[in-house]
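Most newcomers find our protein records easier to grasp once they have seen one. Sequence and backbone structure share a record, each on its own labelled line. To make this concrete, we reproduce a full record directly below:
***
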Amino acid sequence: MNNRKPILYINDEKCRNSYSCVRVCPVNAIEVRPQSAHPYIIPDRCIGCGLCFTSCSPGAVEFRDSREEVKNLLLSGRKCAALIAPSIASEFDDITDYRKFVGMIRLLGFEYVHENSFGVDLIASEYANLFSAAEGKYYITSNCPPIVKMIEKFHPELVPNLAPLVSPMIATAMVVKDLYREDVAVVHIGPCIDAKDELFLYDSGKLVDSVLTFIELRELFDEFN
């Protein structure tokens, strides 16, 4: 049992009881309790997809904030590597020169900046090898953390059909550790909220030290001007 804050939770002070979160949850992980004034997200059922977060107009659904954790890593004296999801180009379309973006990441305190597309290529190659040796077995090829969680929690009979490959985030982190030694701190930056939980599946969170969403990255850019 861990004492981590749930990946998604409801801030009762902001909640207006519109129940939009209840309606959009694909796994019925949000319940309305008679004894409670507001809906409640059940951690054991939640798959971290974030649909409740995007549907809540007052912003009452919040996710585990990693900004302080990352700032502490940047001040720790360890060299830090930022792993950037390829979707950064569409998220930050206001930054037209990628070199400026890399400079902004480094100004936050990161020593190294890598894009996860290298890990995507590595995993794509492994998928090709897997399929060539599949011998008629059907594989679920998604390594999206919410999809994997949904299968593990609600369709456990399909777990053997999950492709036995890590995600591009993890693959890139493994390469970065080889490049810069084991003591480098690795921070993944991407759109997926549930990647914050995925990191704990590998070396107890020591392979990827923390995960920032694009929302948190924008907030850090604003904070550091």
